[in-house]
Every structure is written in C-alpha cells, then in structure tokens.
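Why do we bother with holo predictions? Because pocket geometry can differ from the apo form. Keep that in mind while you read this record for 6R9.
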Amino acid sequence: MDMQRVPAREGDHNLQNYEKVRETFSWDDLKKNFSWNETGKVNIAHESVDRHAQDPTKKDKVALLYSAPDREEKVTFAELRKQSNQFANVLKKHHIEKGDRVFLFMPRSPEFYAAFFGILKTGAIAGPLFEAFMEQAVRDRLQDSEAKMLITTPDLLERVPQDDLPNLEKIVLVGKNTETSGKFIDYLKEMEVASNEFDVEWVDLEDGMLLHYTSGSTGKPKGVYHVHNAMIQHYATGDWVLDLKEDDVYWCTADPGWVTGTSYGIFAPWLHGVTNVIRGGRFSPEDWYGTLEREKVTVWYTAPTALRMLVSAGEDIVKKHDLSSLRHIMSVGEPLNPEVITWGLKAFDLRIHDTWWMTETGAQLIVNIPSEEIRPGSMGKPIPGVEASIVDNEGNEIPPNQMGNLAIKAGWPSMMRAIWKNPSKYDSYFVNGWYVSGDSAYRDEDGYFWFQGRLDDVINTAGERVGPFEVESKLIEHPAVAEAGVIGKPHPERGEIIKAFITLNDGYEESSELLEDIRQFVKTGLSAHAAPRELEVRESIPKTRSGKIMRRLLKSWELGLPTGDTSTLEE
Ligand code: 6R9
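The structure, written out:
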C-alpha cells in the first residue's frame, strides 16, 4: 500500500541535516557536553537535578509539575535537590550502600521522584515497580533482585509478601503509618529530621543505576540492568528526538514502572532541565486533553493504545480544548497505525512521530525526527551513532525489503549491561556482534524500518509486555485449571489482548462464574493487565513431544490461519 508520506515542516528543529550528522557523529564528542567529562566520575542524579539546582538562573524553575485529581504541586529544581538529599540521608542512616537494590512500589507522586533520585545519589540501584502489580509480581521481582529496601504506601503494603523476602531489611512507608515494628520507616518523620545536604556518591559510568523487570516468552520476568552511562543517550535523544528546548513543558504519559517512564519520564527531560508534567490518576480522554490544555504542554510523548482511544473518543472533544501550546508529539510501545497519524494531522494539525526501542536498549534507537519525512507505518531511521539492520538467524545482514530479525550493532551507550543473575540469558541476545531484538522488520531502500511483529511469544497488550509463561503459571495455580496456553489475540484498540486456553481438572464444570473466578484469580494474583480478557476451555492443550505448549498452533487456530509445521506435535 502506498501511504501518503508526510513531509517535515519548516522549523527550528534541534537536529537538522540528519544524514550529515549521522556520517560525522561520535558519542565521544558528545561527552564534552557533560560536567563529568574531566573527572570521569558521575552521578545521573547530579546531572538531572543538582546541576540545575546549582545554577542561579535555573534553581527556581519548576522541575516537576505534578497534578492528580486530588492533589497539585510544583517542585523546583532546588526543592527537588533538597528533597532527594534528605531521602539519600534517610537511606544512609539505614545502611544503604552503593550497589544495593532499593525498590519503589507506589503511585506517581512528588515523593516518588524525591525517593528515586535519593536512591541514585547513594549509588544504590533503583527498581521501580508498577503500582498495579499484585503479590506474585511483587514477590518475583523483590526475590530475584534481593532488594534490601522497599519504598511503598500503607495501601500497597498488603501486596508485599514480607515473609517470603529474607533480604528485605526495611520498608519505608509513604503516607499515614500505623506500623510500629522496627522494620518500618516513616517517610514523613524521617524526612523532617534529615539534613538537606548530601555528598553525592560519585560513581563510574559503568556502575549500576536501574533494574527494570521485563517479560520474555519463557521463565519469570528478567531484571534488565542499566548503568549511569545511559544518560549520554537519554541526553542525545532528548535533543534530537524529543527536540527539547529551554522553555518546553514536557509530558510523558508512561508510568516509571516501565522503561519509558524512567528514560523519558525522568532522565531525558531533566537532563535538559525542562519542566516535566506528571499526571497521576487514570486515563480518560477528558482528563488527558484537560492536562494538555491546563499545563500548556508543548512536547508530548505517549503510546498508540492511548492515541487509539482518543481517536475513538472523537474530534468534538478535541475542539473543546485549547491545545495551541502543543508543538511536538511522539509515540512508543507498539506499532503506530497510519490511520492514527492521519487523524493526528486533522485533530492537532501535528505529525505523530513513532519511536522504537525496548527495555533492554535503554533509550530510543529507531525514530522519526522532526526534520525528516514521515512514512506512516514505519518506525523511522536509526539515530546518529546507532547502526541498525535486518539479519538472518546467523547474524548476516539481508537486503532491503526482506523480512528478518531487527538487529542493532552492539555498543550504543544506553544498552543494558546484564540480565540480573542470568548471564546466559544476556548472551543469548547477541549473535555475530548484533543485538537481536526479537522483533521482525524490514528496511526499505531509503533506510526506513518497518515493524512486522514479534518473533517470540511475548504479548504486547496496550503497550505492555506480558510473558505468556507468567500468565500460564498463574492460571494453573487455580484449583480448577489443569493446563493453560496463552496467546496474544489482535485487538483494534489494545493492539493485542490476552487469550487463554485451559483444560479443567476432574470435578469442575465450565460455567461463566468459574471462568470469571479464574480471570479474577490472575488479576488479583499477578496484575490487571496480565489477566486474560478471553478464556476458552478445551479438551487438551497442544504440546510438543518435549512438553512445550505450542502457542503458535493455538494462535493459528484462533486466527483461522494455516497451522504450518506440526511434526513436533505430541500425539
Ligand atoms: C520502550 C518499550 C519493547 C517491545 C519491542 C516491540 C514493541 C516498541 C514499538 C514497538 C512497534 C514501535 N515496540 N516500540 N513495536 N513499533 N514503535 O516499549 O519497551 O516495554 O520493553 O517493549 O515493544 O515489540 O520489542 P518494552
């Protein structure tokens, strides 16, 4: 299909002459922009917060523009420095050392950001958890990381299985606190008496900074380990792709439990010292348009699922809001439908710029930048300093217009440095010097990349990665369920929904009550976004002779597609 191309508009974009910059750019040159270039000792929290707080022209600028339906707050760079210093002192008092894992399990709030930077200032590794996680999801992550401390709220505490977490020494409670045991720390009380001054722990570029858990097709979620060096790329893409300028009001809608919410909800905007909008509460078209209008957002980073829901909400509601501040929109997480780009041109009179990257890559790699033509349906082209290609299974590059593995030449600054405690898993990403993403794509003659799908069984539902194994494991914990196979089923708004095929244990009869009970069991045990929207009871689940669930076959049946090679199917 020959989609209408959308040319770049004239404008004062940060990155002009993309092709020329690509030819001459080197990451080493860029390092000269950083204050640590001389010493080699860094801390991403210093670069994001303290550097601006120490600048007389910047210190009173609003860093965090927080709002939720029941709360509003403005936090300047100087205040954010002070609060994160205080929290770093609280952590030190309770014996947190460089390299310790400190996890956050709480909604977006000013306290979250103070605590997050406090952790980084001590040289500890921060592990943000999505607030909707239920007990099993929390347990898996805190156990695997051997987290020493957790920051949470009294409301969420019941989902923290304390008895199963021998390494967890202390729990900081943000909010009204009735716990009295010595294990608990009262956030407000300790912050009140903590000093405003803190000597930031200067670390090496390769020292640990962040652990983000993400799902693969097998096994439990894996801890993707990032280091302070990632900031070089957060900074560069903040410049080229986010096109951030001094006076921007920037809004990234992602939760910091996911990588977009840290790399682009925290680091990129604050490395550039811009005002960062954080909106608490739940999604609704009225709320989001209201936020764009009220906060006078200029640069907006969001996701296809949300955009599709805005499309469904219609154009009338757009017209009710004054969105004239908005000048730049980006999207990430799933394929961006060409129809959504067409709609964006009508509704906002702006192009929506797709960007591609992953938890493992730490920052954007393939993007549409403001000064280049957009080809709707394409993810764009690699950023300067990054080499992307399509390779076969042996890691050999294949010609344009042929589908294969989307791969990146290893060595970009924000690349993960390990899978926590799982070196063989880490090694399995790399073939012949290429990082192999697990996505399939092709490249056209002009170097634009076109996403085709996942090559493994990972499900992408409303932009969130869900591993079928996790859901299957939870399903079979239900007393009625004998076996389970889980797939992603295409869905117009959510990209994919989770569909589970199950067999029942003897003595159980299929009924809508039972299916709803099973669904709730996954929802309350794992998380809402992992609960199957569709459940189908079958006589058996197809498996290979070695006992692996043949999800591909389930999917073909579901979609009425040819079943392909079934020679390994168990009789
Ligand atoms: C940042 C983030 C990564 C997976 C990735 C791919 C899908 C991300 C996309 C996209 C099509 C895009 N994905 N961006 N698919 N077009 N622009 O989303 O990280 O949660 O780890 O997901 O998401 O399948 O492999 P993560």
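Residues 77-93 form the longest helix (17 residues).
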